[in-house]
Design a protein that fits this description.
With 291 residues, the protein is of the alpha+beta class. It has 3 domains: 35 residues; 121 residues, Nuclear Transport Factor 2, Chain: A; 99 residues, Immunoglobulin-like (Sandwich). 25% of the residues lie in helices and 40% in strands. It is built from 4 helices and 16 strands. The strands form 4 sheets. A 5-stranded antiparallel sheet has the order 1-2-3-4-5. It has a 5-stranded antiparallel sheet with strand order 6-7-8-14-12, covered by helices on one side. Strands 11-10-15-16 form a 4-stranded antiparallel sheet, with no helix packed on it. It is flat, with a radius of gyration of 25 Å.
Length: 291
């Protein structure tokens, strides 16, 4: 009997070792497959590879399911909108996020020109709230889709869509607002070249409904080129979009250098890289250690 027990124990140990080995091999295989998929997405097949694959940024975005936080976010937006209606400049300024203040040069004196213009009592309701976290940051961003109803002489008007971003600082336990669908933006000097063009990404701004990319392009070829030709945004799951909703000064003559703005459609997503004129340009942006 003792020998049988020893045999059973040894077999159990061997089984555990086999299972652990299989799990390790499976993890290595998935990592390899992800690496292959990643390089297929972010390199130019059959062309000069002008940039390395964009860096991975630790982030997570999805619908907010915590009901307590949902109502907390909603209530803070209501407080902000109440200050907007009452034109309380200092209170409005204190509500605004530092990134938004710095990007648009906002002061207490000009704050009313840089926020929504509501002057009658209103009611705000949130429909959906998207939550974005970054493991390296104390900041969580909430992208809010909702509606407002304005009241005139006690009569409630039609629903009006309302979008905003609210950031929560878990260390200081404070909320801040970024109006007008603003998510994040960055001023950069990201230069890439090939034998046809020199490209400098100067600035990109991500809103809940669009992404604006400002760049300077020098045409080194002998033909007219379009800045928006083959322009794409790549997202984290490998999804790409070519839905350009606005074009400005897109034609560039031979030997001409021009600043252009390309506006892409967006649906509350965070783009990972920009592909313009067959040149992959990664979006490298810490957004306060959160993209």
């Amino acid at each position: 009997m003792k020998i049988l027990k020893y045999i059973i124990i040894i077999l159990c140990i061997i089984l555990v070792i086999v299972l652990i080995s299989l799990a390790v091999l499976k993890g290595q295989s998935e990592q390899y497959n992800e690496s292959v998929r990643y390089n297929e997405i972010y390199t130019n097949s059959g062309q000069e590879n002008l940039v390395d694959p964009p860096i991975e940024i630790n982030y997570n975005i999805g619908l907010l399911e915590d009901r307590n936080m949902f109502f907390s976010v909603e209530n803070n937006i209501k407080k902000y909108l109440k200050a907007v209606v009452e034109k309380k400049q200092e209170d409005i300024y204190n509500f605004l996020d530092e990134e938004y203040i710095n990007k648009f040069g906002i002061t207490q004196e000009n704050v009313l020109q840089n926020v929504e213009n509501y002057s009658v009592p209103l009611e705000f309701k949130a429909r959906k709230i998207y939550q974005m976290e970054n493991g390296n940051s104390q900041i969580t961003s909430y992208y809010v889709e909702g509606y407002i109803e304005q009241q005139v002489n006690g009569v409630i008007g039609q629903e009006e869509e309302y979008f905003t971003t609210l950031n929560y600082d878990s260390f200081n336990r404070t909320f801040s607002i970024m109006p007008f669908k603003y998510m994040f933006g960055n001023t950069v000097n990201h230069q890439k070249s090939n034998n046809k063009v020199d490209i400098t990404i100067e600035e990109y701004t991500c809103y809940m409904d669009r992404v604006e990319v400002k760049m300077k392009i020098k045409n080194n070829s002998t033909v007219v080129i379009n800045a928006s030709q083959n322009a794409k945004l790549y997202y984290y799951e490998g999804k790409e979009t070519t839905n350009i909703i606005e074009k400005e000064n897109e034609q560039i003559m031979p030997n001409e250098e021009k600043e252009v703005v390309i506006t892409f459609d967006n649906e509350v997503q965070t783009p990972k890289s920009i592909n313009v004129l067959e040149t992959n340009i990664p979006i490298i942006e810490d957004q306060k250690e959160k993209i």
